[in-house]
Amino acid sequence: MLALLGVLFTPVPDPVDGSMEEDQGDERLCQAFSEVLLSVQDVDEQDGDQPQLCSQYVKDIYKYLHELEVQQAVRPDYMRGYEITGAMRALLVDWLVQVHSRFQLLQETLFLTVAVLDRFLQVQPVSRRKLQLVGVASMLVACKYEETFSPTAGDFAYITDGAFTAAQVLTMEQLILTALRFRLGRPLPLHFLRRNSKVANEQLQPLVRHIAKNLVLVNEGRSKFLAVKRKYSSSRLLQVSLAPQLRSAAVRQLAAPLLAS
Question: Where are the transmembrane segments (predicted)?
Answer without folding.
Answer: none
